[in-house]
Structure formats: C-alpha cells, structure tokens
Task: inverse folding
C-alpha cells in the first residue's frame, strides 16, 4: 500500500509541474504575440491602444447614463458619442468665425515673423548660421514636394483618427466581449487573475485620462490668461494649441511655444522673452505639480521611469509613441507587477 502511494506522489508532482508549465507558456505566448506585433507592425498596436484610451474615456460618461436611465450599454455609448459630436458642432459654429480668422491671421503672421526675426538677426556675424536657416529656399519644386508630403501626412493622420474612433466606439460598446477573447488566450487557472489585472488596468487608464484632461484644461487656461495679459495677438488659438499639445508631455509645450514666441517677436524681442518665460512657468506647474500628482495617484510612476519610457517610445515609434508613453507605462507597470513580481516571483501584493 505504501509502495503504491509512493508511486502516485511523483505522478502528481509531474502533473502539477506540467500544469504550471502550461500556465507560464500561455502568458509567454501572449507576450510573444504582442512583441511580434510591435516589431512587425508597430503602428497597429499603438493605434489600438489609442482606441482603447478613447473607449475608456467614452465609458466614464456612458456608465453614468446607464445608472441614471437603465438603458443598455450600446445605447448609452452611442448617446454619449452623439452628444459629444453635437457639442463639438455647436462649439465649432460658435467659435468657427473667430478661430478661423485667428488661424488665417496666424498662417499669415508666422512668415512675417520669421522675416522680421531674420532681419533683426542680420548683420550679426555670430548668428549668420541662424539667419541662413531662417531664410526661405524659394525653390518651387521643394515647395511642391513639401506640400505633397504635408498632404500625405494629413491624410494619414485623418485615416488614423477615423480608425482610432471606430476602434474606441467598438471597444466601449462591448468591452467584456473583447476582454473575454483576450482571457481565452490564457490558461483557465489564471482567468480570474487576468480579469482582475484587466480591471486594474482600466482603473489606471481612467484615472490617468481624468488627470491628464484636467492638466490640459489648466494649461490652456493659464496660457490664454498669460498671453492676454502680455498682449500677444491671437491668444485664443495659441492657448488651444497649447492645451491640445499638452497631451504630449515635455515635447508638446515646446512645440506650442514656438508660434507664440514668433508672433511675439514681431512686436518686440522682449515680448518674445516674456512669452518664453510664460510657457516655462506653465510647463513647470503642469510638469512638476499637476502631472506628478496625477501619476502618483493613478500609477505611482517615478518621474525618471516616465522620462525613460518617453525617450524609448519616441525613439522606437516617433511622436505617437511619445504621446502614448505615459499611459502605456502606467498599464505596463500594472501588468509587470501582477504577472511577474506577484505571479512569477511570488512577491506579496503591494498594500
């Protein structure tokens, strides 16, 4: 009898070892598939993640509508989309005339700003190299090539935006179906842990989006008020540009400051300096107070890790990678902690 028990125990240990190997293999297969997508088709997972962000953003008001009305989820999501489109249309109609006028004036003023700045720098031998770079080429073939490149890039961005919008709506309408399909790729023994991980990732993305939206709103308002006080022309459109580019951390505010400084330079070089100081102050508040508080609350990401993630994503995937580096890092931190630190290494969950 004892001999039979001794034979059964090794068989059970081998069965447990085989089961654990299959569990780990299911995770490794999913990681390998994700890595293959990033290597072979880097734009596809990034656009899919952008659609996921949109789905999370749509789910927040949709859940409120569902609680208030008791309607199905797809009705709530489509209602939220229709309401957002209606609000955008009304805002566009109300602000179309002044914004279009300011945008046209901005397009006309920027070349004059460059010319004025070039004239101010001319005659200084130490800045001749900068004058040469500010000088227009005047070659019609280059202008045509640049126009064709800009048109192609614009069409590409429009197509990507439509794709992200469709993916976001589909994911927001039936998130549980897609989550179930993702869990089906894993071993049944860890399906509950996978569901909890996906739920925590959703909570992190929801908190990050709310915090980032608040930071963008504060950035736009502070920039608008500051530019108005300084007397910079077209403060409204410049503030909108600053708020939208605030989604891209670190790099976005620098890009937004360039047209504002060029316009201010047409009035006075000192005004351009004050505009630069304004953008530095707004960036300091947003980057060192608002954003770290948000990151600490929703993802607990150290600033150095976030900066390295932005550099890595920017080097690998360009501007879109930089824009999505922060939410990707937040989700990656959750997945690594739950699957590797707690699941693989057996560390206790963080309190």
Result:
């Amino acid at each position: 009898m004892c001999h039979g028990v001794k034979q059964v125990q090794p068989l059970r240990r081998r069965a447990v070892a085989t089961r654990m190997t299959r569990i780990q293999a299911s995770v490794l297969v999913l990681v390998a598939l994700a890595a293959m997508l990033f290597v072979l088709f880097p734009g596809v997972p990034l656009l899919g993640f952008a659609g996921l962000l949109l789905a999370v953003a749509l789910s927040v008001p949709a859940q409120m509508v569902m609680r208030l009305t008791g309607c199905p989820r797809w009705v709530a999501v489509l209602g939220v989309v229709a309401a957002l489109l209606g609000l955008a249309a009304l805002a566009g109609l109300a602000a179309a005339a002044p914004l279009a006028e300011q945008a046209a004036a901005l397009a006309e003023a920027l070349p004059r700003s460059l010319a004025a700045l070039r004239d101010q720098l001319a005659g200084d031998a130490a800045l001749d190299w900068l004058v040469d770079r500010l000088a227009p080429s005047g070659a019609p073939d280059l202008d045509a090539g640049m126009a064709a490149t800009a048109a192609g890039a614009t069409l590409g961005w429009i197509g990507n935006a439509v794709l992200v919008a469709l993916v976001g709506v589909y994911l927001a309408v039936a998130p549980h179906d897609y989550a179930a399909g993702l869990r089906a790729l894993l071993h049944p023994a860890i399906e509950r842990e996978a569901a909890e991980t996906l739920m925590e990732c959703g909570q992190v993305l929801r908190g990050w989006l709310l915090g980032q939206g608040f930071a963008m709103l504060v950035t736009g308002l502070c920039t608008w008020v500051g530019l108005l006080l300084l007397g910079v022309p077209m403060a409204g459109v410049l503030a909108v540009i600053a708020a939208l580019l605030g989604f891209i951390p670190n790099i976005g505010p620098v890009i937004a400051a360039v047209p504002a400084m060029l316009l201010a330079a047409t009035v006075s070089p000192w005004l351009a300096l004050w505009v630069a100081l304004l953008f530095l102050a707004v960036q300091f508040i947003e980057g060192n107070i608002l954003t770290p508080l948000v990151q600490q609350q929703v993802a607990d990401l150290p600033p150095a890790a976030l900066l390295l993630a932005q550099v890595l994503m920017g080097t690998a995937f360009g501007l879109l990678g930089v824009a999505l580096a922060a939410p990707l890092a937040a989700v990656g931190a959750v997945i690594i902690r739950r699957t590797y630190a707690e699941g693989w290494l057996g560390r206790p969950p963080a309190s």
